[in-house]
Amino acid sequence: MASRRPSDPSSLQPVDLADVTSDFDSPDAPRKNRLDAPIRGPKLGPLEFVRWVWRVLTSMRTAIILLVLVAFASIPGSLVPQRSSDPNGVSIFRDANPELFKFYESIQLFDTFTSVWFSSIYLLLFISLIGCIVPRTLYHWRILRAEPAAEPASWVRLPYRRRERVTDGTVSSLDRAETVLRKAHYRVVRDGASIRAEFGYLRETGNLVFHIALVGILTTLAATGGYGWSGQRVIIEGQSFTNQLASYDSFHPGSWFAEQQLNPYGVTLESFTPEYTKDPVKDVWMPIDFTAKVTVTEGDATREVFLKVNEPLVAGNSQMYLLGNGFAPVITVRDPQGTIVFDQPVAFLSQDSNLTSVGVVKVPDGLSEQLGLQGFFYPSAVNLDSGALASNNPEPTNPTVTFNVYTGDLGLDSGVAANVFQLPVESLTQIAGRHTGIDVVLSPGDVFDLPGGLGSIEFTSLRRFIGVEIRHDPTQTGVAVSTFFIVAGLLASLGTRRRRVWIRVRGTARNPELEWGGMSRGDDSRLDAALDRLVDKTLQTLTDKVTRE
C-alpha cells in the first residue's frame, strides 16, 4: 500500500514546536527574534518535579554546599550567648540591648543549635549524604563482585602501551605476569592468551567509608543534644557535692534527659593548692598548676583523687572538670543579742590575676531588717597612694575584706530568680561602707558593729573554693570511632589510584611478544612509572633473554 504524505509537513510537529519554528523561519520575523527564540523543554509534572528535586538534593555538590552552610550556621552559636549553656549571658544581653534582643529572639539566635533554620539545614545534610551514599554503595558492591573490564577494542588511545619480545613460551610469560599482578594486589582474570586486571577498589571504598563516618559523626553530635547533659557547681573547702539535680548551681539537660541518668556519688573538697610564679618582665603572677584534693564516695567505696586542669575526675557515668578557683571568706552575722543568724563561707568571684574578688552576702532572716553586704576581697591587701586598697599577690598573705552594707527588701520573696552575685542596690538603703563615712574593713577575726544596733559582722576565717563542670556525653566513643574512620577513609581515598591493565600475546610463533596496556580513572601522573615497574618485574622473573624492541 502506498503511503500518503501530508501536504503540510508542519502538521507532523507538536503544536508548541510548530509555533516556535513558524516564528523562527518566518522571513518577516526580525533576525534577533529568530536567533533568540526560546527553547522550551518538556513541562514537569508533580512526579517528575519531585524526582528532579531528589536528584539535586542527593548530588555530592549539594552535600558539600550544605556542609559549608552548617559550618556558617554554627557561627552565631559561638558569638551569641546560648540559653542552653549561658542563660545568665542571655539575661545580661537582654538588659544591655533590649531592642537587638527582640530581633535576635525572633530569629532564634539564642537557641541556634535547636532553631528551625539550623535543624532544617542539618536534616537536609543528612538526607543529602544518605541519598549519595546508598546508591554509590550498591554500585560499588556490584563493581566489587564483577570481573575486571574487558580488553578495549582499540589499544591506540590507551595512555600506556608497551611491547616486549620474549623467547620464553607465551604461556610461561603470562603465568609470570599474572603472578606479579596478583602480588601487587590486582584482581586478575586469565582469558586464554590474554590477561585483564584491575587495581584501586580501595579508593572508592575509602571514599564511601569517609562519607559514612561523616554521617556517623553528625549523628553522634546530634545525639549529644538529646542524651547528654552538663552542670556547674562551686565547691568550698570542707563542703560536699552530691550528684543530684538539686545540688547543681546550674544545669543544662538534653532533650531526652531523665533524672535517673544521674548516677549517685559524692565529692568532698579536702583542700586546694595553687602554684604561681612571677613574670619579672610584666611584673604579674602567672599560675603554674592547680591541684584539688577530693574524696569521692560511690556506694560503700571511698577514694582520694587529685583533680587537675585537663585531668578530669571520672565518677559514675560523668566526668568532673576543674574550671576555676577563688576564695570564700567565712562571714558571721549576729543580731543585737549576739545570736548567730548567718555563718557560712561565701564564694567571691576573682576579677584579676591577683585574685581581687567581689561577692555578695544576703541575710534575709534573723534581724529587724533584711541585710545585704556587697564585698570586695583582697588576698594580699596593700594601700595605694590614693588610699584605696589593692592586692599585689594571689596568695593570702594579708587577706582583707571590705563591705558596703545595705538594708531593705532583697527581693528574695518576689518569686523571681535572683542572681546570687548581685544586690538590687537601687531599692536598698546603704548604712555603711563607701560614701557613707563609715568604712567596713575586716581582717580574719575582726568584728564590725552595724549602725543603729542592728547587729554585727565578723570575718571569721578564709577558705578556698573550686568551680567544676560535671558533664555526661554518651557520644564520645561514637565521635572517636567516626573520626578514626574519617581519617582512614580519607587517606585511603587520596592515596589510591584506580588502574586497569591488559596483557595480550602478539607477534608470531617464532617471535612472540607480550603487549601491556593500561589506563587510570582520573588524573594519574604516576601511571607510567607504576606500570613500568610491573613490566620490569615481570621481565626480571623470566629466565630467558629478553630483548627490548
Chain-averaged pLDDT: 85
Q: Please state the CA-atom Rg, rounded to the nearest Å.
A: 39 Å
Helix content: 25-40%
Number of strands: 25
Low-confidence stretches: 1-27, 544-549
Description:
With 549 residues, the protein is α+β, with helices and mostly antiparallel strands. Helix content is 31%, strand content 32%. The protein is built from 12 helices and 25 strands. The protein has helices spanning 15-25, 31-35, 46-57, 60-73, 75-79, 87-96, 98-106, 116-145, 170-183, 201-227, 476-495, 527-541, and strands at residues 160-166, 187-191, 194-199, 229-236, 240-242, 250-253, 266-279, 284-298, 301-308, 313-315, 318-334, 340-345, 349-350, 357-363, 371-378, 381-383, 389-391, 400-407, 429-432, 441-442, 447-449, 456-472, 499-507, 512-520, 546-547. Strands 4, 6, 10, 11, 12, 21 and 22 form a 7-stranded antiparallel sheet that branches.
